[in-house]
Amino acid sequence: MTQERSWRKSSYSGATEDDNCVEVALVSAAFVRDSKNLDGPVLTFAPAAWKNFLETR
User: Fold this and answer.
1) What is the 3-state secondary structure (H, E, C) of 1-54?
2) Alpha-carbon distance 3 to 39, whole Å?
3) Where are the domains of the chain?
4) Which pLDDT does position 36 carry in this prediction?
5) Distance (Å, rounded) from C-alpha 41 to C-alpha 53?
6) What is the overall mean pLDDT for the chain?
7) Does 7 have pLDDT greater than 80?
């Protein structure tokens, strides 16, 4: 069974479709994708790794 992902665009992303943008979905892990390539690869991060990333930025 796959989990539904609700994607959110980064607040650091640009305002137009041509800008570099990433989207994140938080379910059982953190999923990251390029908002211009919705069918492209998705990076998956364990919760602890994502928490560490957010704390070190």
Assistant:
1) CCCCCCCEECCCCCCCCCCCCEEEEECCCEEEEECCCCCCCCEEECHHHHHHHH
2) 16
3) 8-13+20-55
4) 86
5) 20
6) 86
7) yes
**d(C-alpha 30, C-alpha 11), whole Å:** 16
Nearest residue to 36 via CA among 14, 4, 3, 6: 14
Distance CA 33, CA 55 (A): 20
CA distance 36 to 1: 26
Higher pLDDT, residue 27 or 15? 27
Structure tokens at 56: 């070190």
pTM for the whole structure = 0.77
Match 């919705």 to its residue by tokens. Answer: 38
